[in-house]
Amino acid sequence: KPDPHSVLKVEQVGRHFQGLIALEKVDFELKPGMILGLIGPNGAGKSTLINCISGVVPASSGRVLIDGVDVTSVPGYKVPFIGLGRTYQNIRLFRNLTVLENVAVAAYAVARRQDDPYALAMGYLQEVGLAELHAHLAGNLSYGAQRRLEIARALALQPRYLLLDEPAAGMNPVETDELMQLLNYIRHEYGLGLLVVEHDLKLIMRLCDQVVVLNKGQQIAMGTPAEIQADPHVIEAYIGR
Ligand code: ADP
Ligand code: MG
């Protein structure tokens, strides 16, 4: 399990695209075992923030620190090795590899010499409930199963923090419920800190310890689900669009 004193700090992170300010002065902390929700209307900057934290897109200002190490100065391809895993809003799997191979690739990347990446991968598939489908091509899975496979692949990199961009998108209510159970399991059993972007406010309110609200790149609120639901700025951002 990760060090309970570990912390991921997002410090005054900003990003602009030419004239467009996609993010400005976003600032919060994520700790092991915590689920932080990230909500906001379309175009609020949620995916851009996940891209900045995970090094896919460089931040224009501010810093992201994992236990004092500045993630923004680490090349993107090395980010998985400093404890950060992620999934994508648009699923990115190797569609023509099997379910098992998709996870084994990630397990292999961090394996020690004595480890068997396929055995490790099978363990992660069991965790997300996909072991029986291990020999199927990833591209043939249902949408909900593909999203769970992305989570298994991210877990195989043994991260301390996991960033999930709309993990429930396209899922039916049963799949969404199973996803919530899975995320709670990951939080407790692996002790990971989770950052979850989600449109479904009911899901966010049931799942998260803390919620950060973005609107047009600005962090307009942060607090417990109860605090967020009562916040006039949040109500205005959602109703006023
Ligand atoms: P969200 O995920 O909250 O819906 P995004 O982070 O995808 O929002 O987008 C935030 C804003 O930044 C939007 O106005 C979007 O058009 C813009 N944006 C995102 N990525 C790029 C990019 N690569 N180039 C130009 N503009 C971008
Ligand atoms: Mg998005």
From TrEMBL:
Keywords: ATP-binding, Cell membrane, Membrane, Nucleotide-binding, Transmembrane, Transmembrane helix, Transport. The keyword Cell membrane applies. One of its GO terms (molecular function) is ATP binding. Coiled coil: none annotated. It is found in: Cell inner membrane; Cell membrane. Signal peptide: none annotated. Residues 8-241 form the ABC transporter domain. Its main location: membrane. It comes from the Bacteria. This is ATP-binding cassette domain-containing protein. The lineage of its organism: Bacteria, Pseudomonadati, Pseudomonadota, Alphaproteobacteria, Hyphomicrobiales.
